[in-house]
Amino acid sequence: MFPFLFRHLYIFYSAILILYVGNTFISSSLVDYVIGVLAIPMLLLSFKGASRLFRTLGCIFLSIGMLFYFYSGLPILDLPLYMTSTMQLLAFLTVLPWMNSVVHAGRFDRRMNEVMKANVSSLGKLYVRSSFTTYMLCTFVNLSSIPLTQEVLLENLAKAKKKLRDTFISQTTLRGFSLALAWSPMEIIVALTVDATGVSYMTYLPWLIICSVTVLLADWLWGRKKYQSISYEPSGTGAARSLQPRRLVGQIVKLFLALSVFLVAVVTIGNVFQLNFILSVTLVILPFSFIWSILLKRWNSFITIGWRTWKVRTNHMQNFVVLFLSLAFFSSALNETPFLHYIQQPFFAASEYPLLILILIQLTYLVLSMIGVHPIATIGILVEVLQPLYDIMNPLSIGMVLITGALPTAAVGVYGVTVTMTSMITKQNPYRVTWANLPFALVYGGMGVLLGYLLL
After folding, report:
1. Cα–Cα distance, 171 to 167 (Å, whole number)
2. Mind telling me which residue stretches traverse the membrane in this protein (predicted)?
3. What is the tens place of the pLDDT at every residue in 212-238?
């Protein structure tokens, strides 16, 4: 029975999440309690398939949460009600593969990767091209952009020395990836911050783009200067490729047009139904992906790729299920105790020095990422701690640093998914990946702190 169940977890997960999304419209307290009850076996079943890191985080959050819960004298029968606050994040992650699939079906990823296969004279030029490719792909396919670009670079840099190749790949791909996430409406850190601070996504958007593009251009200048003296010797079919600017521009225009329509749909749905940003994006992704695939005349490919990708991704969501459900219980129980007030005191004490608070947020992300704490877990705690400061400081400033503090960890988090994936693909120590990108992370976070300070 259990092997069958673990092979079909996507059905169990989806049924609960569909029930949750449906209940946002009917607001039934009974259904809400049923969802909470179902969250308990959902969490227990997911522990088996979760990685050791996420099991450890889950156990810590659950253990401390239980202490808070019983300290507050809450009735045991109400416990399921404290398990559902992060269900919307799981619903969001469940539909995300469909957006990735329509990009794959439309072959946008192949077209963008052709940029790196064109002839270039030095690694300096290749650095800019591969960073640009990762940046563009990440907007739509998110994590999938990492192996796509890294595998192409591994093939094209086969003649380069291993140390040089590994450093080049880890810098150009992870930096482009983390910068693209800053303004992507499909990035969960961005969605969490929008809902937590109460500032609209459209208010954040221009400032996040300014931060992202400024650091991106600075990194391109650095990368081009650092690697321009190293000649590029392509291997395999790389030398036969040529860049077609008109075709490339056409693909970029199509991607940005689709993203613009997507954002308009998200804002419209959110305003009409009075939904938060995360739920608005969740509801729009699926119909938008279906319609886009029809307009691209790639319906059959989309359904084939999408169904297979969705089943695999949803069936392997155990890490996030363990993290989000345990985090929901921890934060909900914490809110019922006076301990939250004690944690907030250092921030209140520094309220006359807003720059210090912004730097403290940035450093909290960086330090915790080094010991394996996922940035989503960090932001889950920070949004509860920082909430009273919204009356003292501009929430837009705090939100900017919540986003730009979390996303650089994609390039330096030793135990994070992206760094671990890069170390596996390039066969290098994850600490080398972290060390190669640490200066970049500090600059990226520093730019976010600067903008946040200017917006106070």
Report:
1. 6
2. 12-45, 57-77, 89-108, 172-192, 204-222, 252-271, 277-296, 317-335, 355-383, 395-415, 435-455
3. 999 999 999 999 999 988 888 766 554
